[in-house]
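INFO batch 0412 | record 1 of 1 | parsing
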Amino acid sequence: MLGRSTQCFRVMQHLQAAFVTFVVVLITSMLAAPAMAGYSNFVFAPQADSPGNDYKRVGGLFVNRCDGDTACNAFTYNRLKQICFLKSAAAQWTIINLGAITGIRLSPF
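INFO prediction complete | emitting tokens
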């Protein structure tokens, strides 16, 4: 019989695996949001924030800013505040944020 802490740990592992699977499916299924038509260099995760790796904070058209910057490999745009965070890399996970959209640059290979 497993101890209570071991059972909780296993449940948390299963929940974490389910969440990671959900995020991967979400990102791969959202190859282009309707408002992002023409930007095939990115995959988009609506309602998601990719925490960390910010190197620049800008306003205005977010995809254009990242697409034209070779250092930018991802971005998170806060639609409510109309602020975009350019990122050197996407995080390994995303956080649900109802006012955000995260774009991740596809590898050229």
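INFO post-check: The beta strands are 42-49, 54-59, 74-78, 83-87, 95-105.
INFO record closed
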